Amino acid sequence: MCLSHAIHQTDCIDIHTHILPEKMPDWSKKFGYGGFVSLEHHKVGCARMMIDDIFFREIMSNCWSPEERMKEMIGFKSNVQVLSTIPVMFNYHIHAADSLMINQFLNDHISEICQRYPDNFIGLGSLPMQDTDMAIKELERCIKVLGLKGIEIGTNINDLNLSEPQFNAFWEAAQELNACIFVHPWNMMGQKSMSKYWLPWLVGMPAESSRAISSLIFGGIFEKFPKLRFAFAHGGGSFPFTLGRIDHGFEMRPDLCAIDNNKKPSDYCGHFWIDSLVHSPLAMDYNIQLFGEDKIVVGSDYPFPLGELSPGELVRSMKFNKEKEQKILVKNAIEWLIGK
After folding, report:
1. Total domains, the chain
2. Count of CB atoms situated within 10 Å of the CB of 23
3. CB of 76 within 8 A of CB of 311?
4. Dihedral through CA 80, CA 83, CA 87, CA 91, nearest 10?
5. Are residues 28 and 131 in the same domain?
6. Are residues 46 and 181 in the same domain?
7. d(C-alpha 155, C-alpha 231), whole Å
8. Which helix or strand (DSSP H or E) is residue 154 part of?
9. pLDDT along the chain (340 residues), means of 10
10. What is the pLDDT of residues 35-49, one digit of tens each?
11. What pLDDT does 4 receive?
């Protein structure tokens, strides 16, 4: 599908959906050590995601079958999905060469689906971000060879913030390649100390997104690489709702906050995109006021339970005027994917 014409062909572009191959190699056997995701297909249309012998999550066939996804799209009023891997597959913590092999396998899979169903799927790659040179090479392959539009990365790279100087060469390459960047929480801070009540997903994930956005702002990444197009999952996490505190800290303690960038954090609202996955009309209204109606895109987190069950449902329920609704459902996503 030609993205520049997508606005005339779809009711909604969902930039936040996850997919896996139905079958994966035995990575532990291949590399000689553990810690990898495998799929245990224990019944028809259903599989357990296992990390070694530890149960991680149960998934259904819509997590690997594009045909199942397309059937569900009919009821969603959304027939274009941007595909990215599940963050547990980032594999930043393993040997970079092994991570590269896994990411190439995942990227080939996403590219194949997009080529087979170009009217319904747009792809984002994943990279071995623990090695900048390898990440750049795979990024180039994703864009130039596989036809993907950008990449998905974590909110931190093995606990390193995205503002660390070692990533500057990567940001420069992404800018030159016109690659969009989707930032998704993973490896949540404090995860080990709050395992009860699903708190890592409810508290840790929103904090991780704020960590990523704040790091990029304070580290001056938006200033150094102004043409980069970032989008952040889950409505920017806790960043929008703690921005007043972040600004106040910047103003009161510039000796701590402004050491790499002396521009006020809130000045960057409207510089990047956030998805619509906030589950609340009040939160949606606030984010539109804060970031602008041009910087909100539909993201459902399909096909997982913390996501929006019908992509764009909250946006449609807000009864915006036609132009505003069309921006959020379709047009803003196109601008993030390909630029103006």
Report:
1. 2
2. 11
3. yes
4. -170
5. no
6. no
7. 11
8. strand 150-154
9. 55 96 95 95 94 94 97 89 97 97 98 96 98 98 98 97 98 98 93 90 96 98 98 98 98 97 97 98 98 98 95 96 96 94
10. 999 999 999 999 999
11. 47
pLDDT in tens, 185-231: 999 888 889 989 999 999 999 999 999 999 999 999 999 999 999 99
Backbone torsions φ then ψ of 17, nearest 5 degrees: -135, 150
Instruction: List the one residue out of 96, 181, 180 whose CA is nearest residue 134.
Output: 96
Q: Are residue 230 and residue 99 in the same domain, yes or no? A: yes
CA 58 to each of CA 47, 66, 173, 189: distance values in angstroms, whole numbers, following the listed order: 6, 18, 37, 24
Tokens 């990449």 appear where?
151
Query: What secondary structure letter does DSSP report for 143?
Result: H
Question: Which residue in this structure is represented by tokens 């890592």?
Answer: 200
Tell me, what CATH number does 106's domain have?
3.20.20.140
Name 154's bridge partners: 184
- Residues 195 and 261 reside in one and the same domain: yes
Nearest to 330 by CA among 11, 92, 2, 74: 11
Residue 312 CA to residue 80 CA, distance in Å, equals 12
Q: Which of 46, 61, 76 finishes a domain?
A: 61
Give the structural domain span for 123.
3-19+64-338
CA atoms of 164 and 69, how far apart (whole Å): 38
Q: Which residues pair with 287 in a beta bridge?
A: none
* Cα radius of gyration rounded to whole Å, the chain: 19
**pTM, 2 dp:** 0.96
Q: Are residues 280 and 312 in the same domain?
A: yes
Backbone φ and ψ for 309, nearest 5 degrees, come out as -65, -30
- Show Cβ contacts of residue 321 under 8 Å, excluding neighbours closer than 6 positions: none
